[in-house]
């Protein structure tokens, strides 16, 4: 027997609110996940049912709504996840930018859906030392979830989360705690990254252009229409010949001819003549 009453209507209302707020689609297979995550909020607020929680959400829409969205959004990431993307940046994109951007000496990369920071820090590690000191190289890292953004900004990771990093990378880019139970990202990397909260469905305040956009394992939560709108937005935000990376389980339909498929979930912006 469940701890809290959770009806079909409750799930329907929650799904609608999540979709309206951030475009995430919660199918029936997400019902148990929704229950387990929001049950924590019900306990925290000392309520007795999901119906009572939804009423509470109506009257405490500010801070509680942020907790509500944070509880639903999924954050699973790791350093250098889908490493072929970072290899393409290192082997192909950086040499091209050194030539194409030599006048502006400016490089901008956006990590959209940065979660707890492993992705933007991996990008920063890939970029460090590859551009002359006079260049302006910056990474924008955004996420809907304010909790994971706070963790990302701290840049502190447990040993279990830094698997996949080589001893040389750990020595160069991290400071190990005296007890060995934590690794802190060095300021050299943190200074390259600006962390900002952003709902991808709301107006984007930045102007771009970005040379590279990472939007990986985010699109899977959106319906086809929303994905299409995001692809158009990314196309507008990308510089001439800019690149877009999406997640390993995500696809871009053939109708999006504004991008050239490079294979392995890597795309290049096509420009109309």
UniProtKB/TrEMBL annotation:
GO biological process, one term: methylation
InterPro entries xrefs: Bact_Chemotaxis_MeTrfase, Chemotaxis_MeTrfase_CheR, CheR_C, CheR_MeTrfase, CheR_N, CheR_N_sf, SAM-dependent_MTases_sf
EC number: 2.1.1.80
Catalysis performed (reactions): L-glutamyl-[protein] + S-adenosyl-L-methionine = [protein]-L-glutamate 5-O-methyl ester + S-adenosyl-L-homocysteine
Binding site for S-adenosyl-L-methionine: 75, 77, 81, 119, 143, 199-200, 216-217
Keywords: Methyltransferase, S-adenosyl-L-methionine, Transferase
Top-level enzyme category: transferase
One of the record's GO molecular function terms: protein-glutamate O-methyltransferase activity
Domain of life: Bacteria
Pfam short name (any one): CheR
Start and end residues of each CheR-type methyltransferase domain: 1-272
General function of this protein: Methylation of the membrane-bound methyl-accepting chemotaxis proteins (MCP) to form gamma-glutamyl methyl ester residues in MCP.
Protein's recorded name: Chemotaxis protein methyltransferase
């Amino acid at each position: 027997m469940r701890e809290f009453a959770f009806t079909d209507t409750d799930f329907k209302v929650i799904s609608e609110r999540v979709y309206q707020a951030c475009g995430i689609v919660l199918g029936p297979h997400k019902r148990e996940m929704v229950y387990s995550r929001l049950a924590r909020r019900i306990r925290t607020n000392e309520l007795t049912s999901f119906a009572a929680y939804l009423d509470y959400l109506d009257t405490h829409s500010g801070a509680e709504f942020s907790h509500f969205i944070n509880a639903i959004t999924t954050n699973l990431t790791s350093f250098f996840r889908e490493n072929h993307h970072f290899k393409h940046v290192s082997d192909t994109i950086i040499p091209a930018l050194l030539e194409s951007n030599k006048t502006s000496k400016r490089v901008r990369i956006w990590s959209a859906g940065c979660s707890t920071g492993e992705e933007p820090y991996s990008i920063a590690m890939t970029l460090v030392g590859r551009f002359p000191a006079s260049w302006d190289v910056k990474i924008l890292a955004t996420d809907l979830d304010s909790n994971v953004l706070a963790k990302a900004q701290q840049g502190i990771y447990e040993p279990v989360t830094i698997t996949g990093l080589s001893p040389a990378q750990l020595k160069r880019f991290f400071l190990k705690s005296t007890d060995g139970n934590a690794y802190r990202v060095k300021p050299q990397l943190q200074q390259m990254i600006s962390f900002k909260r952003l709902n991808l469905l709301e107006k984007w305040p930045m102007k771009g252009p970005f040379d590279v956009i990472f939007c990986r394992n985010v699109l899977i939560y959106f319906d086809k229409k929303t994905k299409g709108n995001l692809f158009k937005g990314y196309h507008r935000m990308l510089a001439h010949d800019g690149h877009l990376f999406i997640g390993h389980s995500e696809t871009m339909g053939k109708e999006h001819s504004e991008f050239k498929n490079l294979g392995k979930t890597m795309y290049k912006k096509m420009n109309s003549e």
